[in-house]
Amino acid sequence: MSENYDLFTTRMRKATRKIHSVSDALVNAKFALSLRDEPVWGGGLFVFYHIFAFLEDAKDRLNMPDFNKLFVNKILYRKKAFEEDLAHYLGEDWQSTPKSAALENYIEHLQDLETEHPTMLLAYVYHLYLGLLSGGQILAKKRKMFGEKNAPENVYTDKVTDFNDVDINELKKEFRNAMNEIAERMSKNEQDTFIEESNQVFLMNNLIVNSVGGQNRVLCNMFYKASALLLVVIGVIYAYKMHK
Q: What pLDDT is recorded for position 145?
């Protein structure tokens, strides 16, 4: 099938494939080693909270039919879930956490879009919420997998990646269908501009992910643990040879 007949969401996926791959690699590099480190995990939630919160607040401010259409299920609203998680991981005073320059720039860009090109905010809604329904679910499963073996049964469950009993695959299907229906009413130039902005979504996501600190501390802890284990192994081998 030629590109002219591809669904709009398929066109976006193809056009953003390269930067999307870079984004996935960066997220894995930043957070995969920090799945059990609550401050680092909380730092990642903090930067994305401000983006999701802005988009949900902008939806209410703008009250645009297409904006409302894209929120196909009220379960997509994540602002309160983020706030619960942030209070757990960063403490009740999490709102006093300073924003990085990358995050401030991201928010300023969204503010400009809301004023000048509000439809372009839908590119952020589409990619960010779809990401939460896809990669976000994978990270959530990894966090459970790499959790403490002796963790209590009442261990905290992340709220932002918890969609209760909603069928995630069906929700993603409805979400994509809504995006395609919205795109059908766009001109070709509007669609092209939307796809260009979609690449900007991943670029700006990469910048705020890169601004999250703490990974060096995690890597150091892992290094020290690995070094201690290596010394124990060497000691056992040496003792064995001495008494052989």
A: 63
Judged on CB neighbours under 10 Å (0-12, 13-18, 19+), 184 is exposed
CA 61/CA 68 separation, integer angstroms: 11
User: Apex CA 158: angle with CA 142 and CA 102, to 5°?
Assistant: 85
Rounded Cα distance, 25 and 57, in Å: 30
71 Rama sector, left if φ>0, alpha if ψ -120 to 50, beta otherwise: beta
Check pLDDT > 60 for residue 50. yes
Half-sphere exposure of 60 (CA within 13 A, CB side): 7
Q: pLDDT (tens digit, 9 = 90+) per residue, 142-159?
A: 766 665 544 556 678 899
Query: Cα–Cα distances in Å, from 135 out to 51, 77, 79, 139, 225?
Result: 17, 17, 18, 6, 29
Tokens of 191: 């669609």
Q: Which residue has the higher pLDDT, 99 or 239?
A: 99
